[in-house]
Design a protein that fits this description.
Elements: E1 5-7, H1 11-17, E2 22-23, E3 30-33, E4 38-45, E5 48-56, E6 68-70, H2 71-76, H3 78-86, E7 88-93, E8 95-102, E9 105-113, E10 119-129, E11 135-144, E12 154-155, H4 160-167, H5 174-179, E13 189-193, E14 218-220
Length: about 220
């Protein structure tokens, strides 16, 4: 996964598809979500599945690469293993952006699932406390391998059964949780070119997800 994604589902469709019981935060469709911004997340709170929001990216320990955590990192890092056991969430996504590089130029592409208009990415989270003990929850997306020829990490996707198990706080066995993170094959995704303006985190509009001709997707540096 690169450093941008979108969530374009209407709230009614999102709550139905993900069986959300309670919405704790205002919801807006998003077309160009960037690191450090607040993102919609789904978590189990008591008996209810809730829509909440977290900062995208763990801080302050892991710096710029904190928006993703690879499967290998989950096994190697003690702090990630703790989050895996106790602090799991789902990040709903309608598509994510990648950049294909040729020479000194790169083109912007959007990756969507062929059959799922919105899919479930597994996340883990932590809660940072400031000096006044205010809580700031923050999440990272679990990834595996690389996407097509771009070299960008590919987010793991959970099916409905795996999502239920992932959000179940009673499940704490690392081997069971790791087994849920197999992901869907690349063949389930398709890419299409989009306007290069998605590189600008301040550009937040429906035009971000519109398919353009390939020659219009290039950004020159």
């Amino acid at each position: 996964m690169c450093n941008r994604f979108s969530l374009t589902a209407e709230l009614a469709d999102l709550t139905e598809s993900f069986r959300i019981d309670r919405v704790h935060v205002p919801y807006l469709r998003r077309f160009n979500i960037a690191p450090t911004q607040q993102i919609p997340i789904i978590q189990q709170i008591g008996e209810e599945r809730c829509l909440n929001q977290h900062r995208w990216g763990l801080m302050p320990y892991w710096g710029k690469n904190s928006i993703n955590a690879s499967l290998d990192m989950l096994s190697d890092r003690n702090y990630l293993r703790l989050m895996l056991r106790k602090k799991r969430c789902v990040i709903p996504c309608s598509g994510f952006y990648v950049w294909r590089t040729e020479g000194k130029s790169k083109s912007a592409w959007r990756v969507v699932h062929r059959t799922l208009s919105t899919f479930a990415m597994p996340g883990i989270y932590d809660v940072w406390l400031d000096s006044e003990r205010n809580e700031f929850p923050m999440s990272t997306v679990i990834t595996r391998g690389a996407l097509f020829e771009t070299g960008d990490p590919l987010p793991v996707i959970l099916d409905e059964e795996s999502m239920d198990a992932w959000l179940d706080p009673r499940e704490t066995r690392p081997e069971v949780l790791q087994s849920l993170l197999q992901g869907l094959p690349d063949a389930d995704f398709r890419m299409y070119p989009v306007a290069p303006f998605v590189e600008n985190a301040e550009w937040e509009a429906p035009e971000c997800i519109v398919e353009v001709s390939p020659e219009l997707s290039w950004v020159k540096h």
